[in-house]
Write a structure and sequence with these properties.
Elements lengths: L2 E3 L10 H5 L5 E3 L4 E3 L19 E3 L7 H12 L15 H4 L5 H5 L9
Length: about 110
C-alpha cells in the first residue's frame, strides 16, 4: 500500500504534508505534489495534514485510483524531491473546492524542489 496525491492538490499545493513525512517521499511539480509510491512507508501521517483532502491511501476504492497511482509514480521519477514546506500559491484558496482540475490545469513541468 502507498498513499497518493490526487487532483485536489492541483493549483492548491498547500504543502502541509511535507512537514510531517518521515521519509521525504514528496516530489514537486509546477502546480501539485506527488508521492513516490516506492518510497512511501504507508505511515499515513500526511493524509490528515492536507487541508483539501488530496491524499488518499491506494486502497481507498476510488474509481480513479489507478490513474493517480500512475501519475504519482511517473512524476515522482522526474520531478525534484521536496522536503521543506514552501509557500502555497497566492490564489490556492480560489481552487480548493473546484473539481475537474486535472483536465483544466495539470502541468507536467517540474517545481523547484529544495
Amino acid at each position: 500500500m502507498t498513499y497518493l496525491v490526487t487532483e485536489s492538490c492541483i493549483r492548491c499545493k498547500y504543502m502541509d504534508c511535507i512537514e510531517v513525512c518521515p521519509v521525504d517521499c514528496f516530489y514537486e511539480g509546477e502546480n501539485m505534489l506527488v508521492i513516490h509510491p516506492d518510497e512511501c512507508i504507508d505511515c499515513g501521517v500526511c493524509e490528515p495534514e492536507c487541508p483539501v483532502e488530496a491524499i488518499i491511501p491506494d486502497t481507498a476504492g476510488d474509481d480513479d485510483e489507478g490513474k493517480w497511482l500512475e501519475v504519482n509514480q511517473k512524476f515522482a521519477e522526474i520531478w525534484p524531491n521536496i522536503t521543506r514546506k514552501g509557500e502555497p500559491p497566492a490564489d490556492a484558496d480560489d481552487y480548493k473546492d473546484e473539481s475537474g482540475k486535472f483536465e483544466k490545469y495539470f502541468s507536467d513541468k517540474p517545481g523547484e524542489g529544495d
